[in-house]
């Protein structure tokens, strides 16, 4: 007995081209109220398509990058001093509102996508097995069930239904009211808003800059890259983009809740901070693998193929239908239908047949029959889907490496009591993870060994006659040695405890 199988195959070279084909156009989500699980609001079709124009994310990403570079330069010129606005009470509440909004929005998106996945993804232990699960994750359009998808064929530049029972809409595209596939069930709606949210998230960087801190190159790459990856996934309706929307929204809901709590100085266990970083790393690793595998997956589906009547069966049907007629009528009838079968309709019309033969043939006319065949189909259908997959892979790969380095340097060394000064790569990884530091008014980047505390930025000069740095080096008349003990009369207070593992309260020895 034939059954569906999942195969590992090499992708067609036709799917790898740049720039990718712009066909098909992105299909908007169903209008509100059109079905039981339709979106809560309708997105105007022109607006839906306009913001997916490639010039939108490219322009915003470029303006964002140039702005960050300029403001980083400005902050360096002012000695990394916080902007005046960052000291306003309204700025604090703006940061809190920003965090709460993104936490609630991310949770809403996560719940919406979870509901859509539960309705559409087939259970691998069901009748169709693993192939049914693969089909439900690979094919975005049509109705639920193996072999019921609607796919775009680049060769014919048209949408094609895999089943004779699943019809296209009046415009020759999948019907927006079809249910059972991920695009109509939620990905088109939640994915589009999640794409827009990547533009709003750049406020994280502006908050960092307003506090006088430096926004790392990696953070700029992180935000700009997320814009482009989400654009590609939604614009080309690429199957694995659902994971970006679903998993990333869940992690963001936790992260922005964490940032909200830290804004109010709520103590957060170190284990929770470590867990957030771990989830980010797992997200990147799984995301890279999951997106990549789509290009190498094929599977078999059942297809109903019409059975064509053969020349012999047509002749046999005619002869059996006219057994009660005279031999002349039988001969004329056979000749007429044989000519029609051969395509000679004009000659066939010149042959007269007894009306009783026509009636007999009509009553025994052949009906269309079908047989089930298993055909191999690729998970990915268009060059646009392939482009979106590999853009995400190239974006996530360096982030994965840098987050792993940050995790090792930050948490594993901290656990062993060997905290060292963070390098540029670690700081960049931390920026990309956190997006924005929520510790209002507290020092950023200060490194302390043991129980020593430093109030203020680590790179600020300590106040007092000794002009000692926060890292424990004394300048001027203090003639301090490297361990932070000042030898001399000038014993200025360094605004904090700054020793290599010991607290001296700024007193000279």
Write up what this structure looks like.
This protein has 509 residues and is mainly alpha-helical. The protein has three domains: 16-297 and 379-412, no CATH class; 310-365, no CATH class; 443-509, no CATH class. Helices cover 49% and strands 6% of the residues. It is built from 15 helices and five strands. The chain has helices at residues 45-50, 55-77, 89-120, 129-138, 182-200, 203-210, 217-235, 241-263, 270-293, 311-321, 327-341, 345-349, 355-363, 383-415, 424-434, and strands at residues 6-8, 150-153, 158-161, 297-307, 369-378. The strands form two sheets. The chain has a three-stranded antiparallel β-sheet, with helices on one face. It has a two-stranded antiparallel ribbon with strand order 2-3. β2 (150-153) and β3 (158-161) form a beta hairpin. The longest helix is centred in the C-terminal third of the chain and has 33 residues, at 383-415. The radius of gyration is 34 Å and the shape is elongated. Residues 309-328, 341-351, 361-365, 418-430 and 432-509 have low confidence and may be disordered. Belongs to the ELO family. The chain crosses the membrane at residues 54-71, 91-111, 189-209, 221-245, 251-269, 281-301, 387-408. It catalyses: an acyl-CoA + malonyl-CoA + H(+) = a 3-oxoacyl-CoA + CO2 + CoA. Keywords: Fatty acid biosynthesis, Fatty acid metabolism, Lipid biosynthesis, Lipid metabolism, Membrane, Transferase, Transmembrane, Transmembrane helix.
